[in-house]
Amino acid sequence: MAPVTTTSFPAEAVPQAPEDPLFGLMRACKADNSPDKVDLGIGAYRDDNAKPWVLPVVKKLTFCATHATQADEILRNDPDLNHEYLPIAGLASFTSKAAELLVGTSSPALSEKRVSSVQTISGTGAVHLGALFLAKFYKINGQSSTVYLSNPTWANHNQIFSNVGLPIATYPYFSKETKGLDIEGMKRALADAPERSIILLHACAHNPTGVDPTPEQWREIADVMAAKKHFPFFDCAYQGFASGDLDRDASAIRFFIEQGFELLIAQSFAKNFGLYGERAGCFHYVSPPSPDAASVTTRVASQLAILQRSEISNPPIYGAKIASTVLNDKALFAEWQENLRTMSGRIIAMRTALKAKLDELKTPGNWNHITDQIGMFSFTGLTEAQVAKLRSEYHVYMTKNGRISMAGLNTKNVDYFAKAVDKVVRET
Ligand SMILES: Cc1ncc(COP(=O)(O)O)c(C=O)c1O
């Protein structure tokens, strides 16, 4: 047989794709051996020593030896702990509590059986499953509806929705002038969008801006969306991590459900449980109140199961088991809430420290947004040239759009970072 000399995948068909910018940044940062290095790239929590933090409540469940406690016993002695397949929709004790966490334990949506939940490959998998479901089943006059994403948004939203063939558009979100929410621009765009468009909303701690609507602004957004019959898709990657209060961080979602919207929710447990690599997440469909709501929900669940089966067959067990154990145990749940307050509190303290130092240095500009914004990220307003200089001269790693992960700051590097910012702002 003649040797194969040509590929079926020439460069015209399969061009070299650029590296994912965020993971590329992570790689470059890892390779930098400077003792001054400040890693403000990836959105993962770090403690005051810039180290990953296994939540104490999670550690109890997963590390035996020196940390053996009553809770540790729970997981290790669980007679159901094995490596069998989960059901297609995942671990029911996990997904049911995950739904309660979002909609609230006393929500009529639960008692009326209007919620259908599927365990997914973390938040990304949940956004993907929702996108796939919409691409297949949400048609207006036989056509796919456009998905409106905030400008800016988590970069992966663009490729997740376009990979399933849904058209994409954006709505204004961040005002460069105020470094806050462009509520008028957002409402105008939603009002101008064709009826029944899909609107992707960040439930809390907007990535990358750290800017969330106020309760009053959420009401205004809901009013416009109801008038245009738009379809809300909430991405909730930071519940409890933003304010330290699980209920408060879910309030926008609960408000939309109270208003009678039919909606989708993608839920990640990466940040709030520190279970990044375990890929624990959920996707939820909530039907609007109606006499046949329960049967609608059952029908939707049956189709979600088919999509899930063809994509991942069934989800991974380990992270779900950890989260489920905590969510189903009163004492562990209380401890988790304490851990959430530790993480959100440290981030808020870093916002205060950074702003105070920039004020002290009299760095040109107004830095109120550092403390006004919430959650893992701050959109600093630094330009691409300033970001490049921070990297080349000060070993500070952050995304080109000026976003910093607040969790990368700590009591040892916040002054260094503020001084570096001060220098580049004055020089560039
Ligand atoms: C807005 C948003 N959605 C979803 C995710 C999904 O994360 P994961 O797949 O790790 O749960 C992230 C993570 O950074 C995010 O910021």
From TrEMBL:
Its EC number is 2.6.1.1. Its cofactor is pyridoxal 5'-phosphate. InterPro entries: Aminotransferase_I/II_large (IPR004839), Asp_trans (IPR000796), NHTrfase_class1_PyrdxlP-BS (IPR004838), PyrdxlP-dep_Trfase (IPR015424), PyrdxlP-dep_Trfase_major (IPR015421), PyrdxlP-dep_Trfase_small (IPR015422). It catalyses: L-aspartate + 2-oxoglutarate = oxaloacetate + L-glutamate. The keyword Transferase applies. Keywords: Aminotransferase, Pyridoxal phosphate, Transferase. SUPFAM superfamilies: PLP-dependent transferases (SSF53383). This is Aspartate aminotransferase. It comes from Podospora didyma.
